[in-house]
Amino acid sequence: MTFSIHGLAVARGIAIGRAVLVASSRVDVAHYFIQPEQVQVEIDRLRQARDAVVEELKRLQHELTAEAPPELGALLDVHLMLLEDESLSSGVKHWIEKRYYNAEWAVSSQMEVIGRQFDEMEDAYLRERKSDLEQVTERVLHFLKGGHSPVVRTKPHVRPQQELQLGDTMDVPLVLVAHDLSPADMLQFKQSVFTGFVTDVGGKTSHTAIVARSLDIPAVVGARSASQLIRQDDWLIIDGDMGVVIVDPSPIILAEYGFKQRQGDLERERLTRLRLTPAVTLDGQRIELLANIEMPEDADAAMLAGAVGVGLFRSEFLFMGRQGNLPEEDEQFEQYRRAVEGMQGLPVTIRTVDVGADKPLDEARHDAAHLNPALGLRAIRWSLADPEMFLTQLRAILRAAALGKVNLLVPMLAHASEIHQTLALVKQAQLDLDVRGVPYGNVRLGAMIEIPAAALSLKLFLKHFDFLSIGTNDLIQYTLAIDRADESVAHLYDPLHPAVLRLVADTIAEGAAQGKSVSVCGEMAGDVSMTRLLLGMGLKSFSMHPSQVLLVKQQILRADTVKLKALAQQVLASEDPAGLLAS
Ligand code: PEP
Ligand code: MG
Question: Probe ligand 1: pick from 354, 358, 524, max atoms within 8 Å of CB?
Fold first, then answer.
């Protein structure tokens, strides 16, 4: 039966595919695709794990003493029966053979399928047997579990087309459905087969959503109970423009969305013609369109989109998911070097590490996080709390600056003392390199304006820094006291709130008055509905996901900043900026 689920639209476009549900088991399960030639290995692994559990249960049964409660023996019988159940084992094999899931993933998927059948049973006694099923599968998973693997692994090696048989499924598009995904998990999408994704939780500018947008695949977050309502293998349409997920669509709906999908592809194709067109407004203002990247290899997408540099390299992605083994100076240098060389002489703005809040270093540390992580030890606060770690990063960035134009950007500054400490550490890093005789280059120093306190102390910032970059994602979060990753308050996360607009406009104006460049690198910069307003405020530099660059350029080519200045003044004076902008 067709039904739809509403969430937040985070990454544009339409994806149509079969649902792949992950991480619904209570056990921490590895999910990855195997190569077709590994199918038998996985089935053997499964058989061994099952045999081990059977043996263990039989031994327990054997060891039961006469005093043991009789229910215990009966329970073990039920568990053994479940293990021998044909629908369990053939179902698990199905996921391995047809979907190329690893054995753990296959077991947890099948447990979910059968678990739902238990839920639907009339008889309360039978319904309760679901917990036995869970216990048995968890035992099997326990035996299967060797090392821990991350959520999504790379593309399986797809067999040549002629070998694919009807019903074989690697040619079926897959979309991922999860309760939640960390930003680090999302990064793995870059090599995955998924063409779209849905999560239950998350806000529009949560880092998971940001990474999704950078991958340019349709995504919906904050879809509440999607991972419970959607079943393994359901056909789904993900409408990333409207924030809607359609489950089990009828043929008419499928045809309609298939058409929309093709229209979207054509539109993108058409836009690529603007790649080399300079971003100049009708009245002759040259606008700088920069790219936000997460990994050095994203430089390719930035170049392809015609960006004239990187305005924000979120270096923290190099630090995540490493179980606390932070990258050393040489390793970091190597990554920054790749980004600088990838941009072929264009400038690269490397932001110092910004972990914390919804970007945990790794899940283990996340658990130990403080109650209010967004207000806690994140970004520059984290760096200043560990000067050795910070110095290591600064040295690596300075070394990369010897190879090309590099700007160094510092996140989340608010206090004069933080500015002074940061600048002193940059000097210290230069000294360290001098002593070692290692070459390094000059960097332009920039501060992110993403805390209202910073936006209200611009003179201090402009005195010490060469440029400013407005992080609207956090500026909105901290101005409005709205957790950007919390879908329950997403309706109050308002980029057009007059207070937010005032802070953004003042930062742009103050920077211009002092002859220093100001950029916006939050999601606002890539949101085409905001382009005209930002141009009217006098913004000359926008930094966004490569996937947005051409769309924003299209807006710029049609804009007249003289006229837009008047619009911006009206919007800034209005109590209803959204209404005015829409009219
Ligand atoms: C921002 O806050 O707007 C920003 C660009 O930084 P991040 O999204 O990584 O916090
Ligand atoms: Mg930020």
Answer: 354
Helix locations, 447-576, DSSP H = 452-455, 458-464, 472-480, 498-513, 528-536, 546-557, 561-573
On whether both 419 and 542 belong to a single domain, the answer is yes
Residue 366 falls in the annotated catalytic set: no
Over residues 303-329, the mean pLDDT reads: 92
Q: What is the mean pLDDT of the chain?
A: 87
Question: Does residue 148 carry a catalytic annotation?
Answer: no
| Residues 185, 212 contacting (CB under 8 angstroms) | no
How far apart are the C-alpha atoms of 227 and 325, rounded to whole Å? 32
pLDDT band at residue 153 using 50, 70 and 90 as cut-offs:
very low
> Relative to the alpha carbon of 206, which ligand is closest?
1
133 and 183 assigned to the same domain: no
Asked if 414 and 460 touch (Cβ cutoff 8 Å), the reply is no
User: Does the pLDDT at position 516 exceed 70?
Assistant: yes
Domain span including residue 112: 36-145
The per-residue pLDDT for 28 is 63
- In sequence order, what are the residues at sequence separation of 6 or more whose Cβ sits closer than 8 angstroms to the Cβ of residue 573? none
- What percentage of the chain reaches a pLDDT higher than 90? 60
Q: Is residue 419 part of a domain?
A: yes
This prediction's pTM: 0.79
Ligand 1 atom closest to residue 472's alpha carbon, by position in its atom list: 3
Last residue of a domain, one of 269, 296, 312: 269
Token pair in block for residue 361 = 């270093």
User: Does residue 197 sit in helix, strand or coil?
Assistant: strand
Query: By C-alpha distance, which of 253, 294, 216 is closest to 10?
Result: 216
203 and 341 belong to one structural domain:
no
The CATH number of residue 132's host domain is 1.10.274.10
Residue 438 CB burial class (10 angstroms; 0-12, 13-18, ≥19): middle
Please give the average per-residue pLDDT across 14-18, as a whole number: 94
User: What is the position in ligand 1's atom list of the atom closest to the CA of 292?
Assistant: 5
Locate 337 and state its tokens.
């070097």
What confidence tens digit (pLDDT) does each residue in 219-267 have?
999 998 898 899 888 999 999 999 999 999 999 999 999 999 999 999 9
d(CA 515, CA 467): 9
Question: pLDDT, tens digit, for every residue of 295-307?
Answer: 999 999 999 999 9
Number of independent structural domains in the chain: 3
Element (H, E) at 224: none
Q: Do 47 and 172 sit in the same domain of this protein? A: no
182 neighbors 360 (Cβ within 8 angstroms):
yes
Q: Which two tokens stand for residue 3?
A: 């039904």
Say if residue 415 is in the same domain as residue 531: yes
- From residue 376, give the alpha-carbon distance in Å to each of 225, 320, 342, 353, 417: 29, 18, 35, 15, 17
Going by alpha carbons, the residue nearest to atom 3 of ligand 1 is 471
Give the distance (Å) from ligand 1 centre to CA of residue 472: 7
Q: Is residue 28 part of a domain?
A: no
Reduced to 3 states (helix: H, G, I; strand: E, B; else coil), residue 495 is coil
Q: Which atom of ligand 1 is nearest to the CA of 312?
A: 5
Domain contains 30:
no
Are residues 194 and 218 in contact, defined by beta-carbon separation less than 8 angstroms? no
